[in-house]
């Protein structure tokens, strides 16, 4: 079914009108086709500026993981680099050098065996980075299967049903069978035992998420890796791990340094993160890193001439601005390890304090408390039947707060939750204002005779916690090869 634009759902004027105060004389311009003549730049600015006032306030958006604040110096550098095309390594060699420095810094942060020889690249975000990592896993598996004289036409990937939608897209676009581990009871993410159950000789990798978009919880990467080690010892089946650290990859190194989740685990082949999430950059940059050159098949890499030398590139996108990469490097220099640790600890402190205060209000039960990612999820308590999380989300929106309400995936569709993401720039003062507004709406909600909103009429405001298509769930074979080898 073709996508519908917002204006196709209602009757709207086909022209935009400008206020004479701004335009010097009344004018009308077409809304949906190119104007015949140009207009004064101030008028064009004002028309667009006025319309954008209808957008939500990004700083009050507690749905998004994406950074909504940056220092003026970072914004100035981004403006200076907006016209530099990141793909043109030969024309903008110093921007390319800065990108390489960021890769080495991340490799060191993630305990790569040899950070100076790390393999990695910048991307437009963690979704593109995930695609690249998935492609590398698929290609490695294909090379190994063909070398063994075995068929390489039925690859599959194992992951929890809670993965971000980019992994569903990867499986669909690149013809890999997704095997989703469903939620069970109070387990809302992937477990080691459940992951191994779905692995067989056609499994290209297991995706472990360091910070679920549903509730902010870390998946047990070390336990998953250990279970896969045991699987290989029993069956000979060697399944690598990719860590989707879109958010947690820039939290755990600073706040959970003893937690083994990164290249310290030999089975971890690749990691991705979003520079524009807890990397603290404005939207538009992600990072993909591989343990070593062997983990990234060379036939996926394109080589360009770079100052008379070889510059390998690996990307799905082509032209894109270098601004966000420069901003990432600025943050690395500006903050350093201790600065990042301070920022992330502040976010976690705000999250844990705010979640504790929400729990004290009475009608809510915490699912997570923000002690991993600075993100917490909560539901309406069992004894409340006259309002829903969707009512709470709508009531908070009246004051400008954007808090997503969503239903969990199959096997736990009975569970509906609200999620609050704490980012840099959202301090204790804003948390107090949020709490005050939440307290203010509760008497009205408690006075309702029955819920006003549910999942069907609340709109598509899941923001990263979308339910996967049921046809793609689990997908486990009748008798996994791993079990055949054991029997």
TrEMBL record:
It holds the Pfam family Pyridoxal_deC. SUPFAM superfamilies: PLP-dependent transferases. It catalyses: L-glutamate + H(+) = 4-aminobutanoate + CO2. Gene3D superfamilies: 3.90.1150.160, 4.10.280.50, Type I PLP-dependent aspartate aminotransferase-like (Major domain). Its cofactor is pyridoxal 5'-phosphate. The keyword Disulfide bond does not apply. GO terms for molecular function: glutamate decarboxylase activity. Its EC number is 4.1.1.15. The keyword S-adenosyl-L-methionine does not apply. Residues 453-487 are annotated as: Disordered. Keywords: Decarboxylase, Lyase, Pyridoxal phosphate. It is an enzyme of class 4 (lyase). It comes from the Bacteria. InterPro entries: Glutamate_decarboxylase, PyrdxlP-dep_de-COase, PyrdxlP-dep_Trfase, PyrdxlP-dep_Trfase_major. NCBIfam families: Glu-decarb-GAD (TIGR01788). Belongs to the group II decarboxylase family. This is Glutamate decarboxylase.
